[in-house]
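Page 47, continued from p. 46.
Same chain as before, 92 aa.
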Amino acid sequence: MNYILVEWIHDLPDEPSLLLSELDQQQNEVRKIEVFPNGKVGYASSGFEVGGTRLSIEPIPDLNEIASDPQFKPRYISKEEFEKFWNENVIR
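Result:
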């Protein structure tokens, strides 16, 4: 598994500004968290979707491809960082 965090720099109040994804070996999302500018959090896994967040049906591009668009600031994060965020925002 790989874990990524993407900052999305924009002025769209109804779109997430932070996206975190757990990716399998084929770059498919397994779990996803979206944080919106107003603090709302949406999340999804294969068994559920909350707050309008859905898993992508396409593999996620590599970080270089994501970063080629200046409005996105992607980076890898550790499993522990992802789990901490998941546990704080999903498992309450």
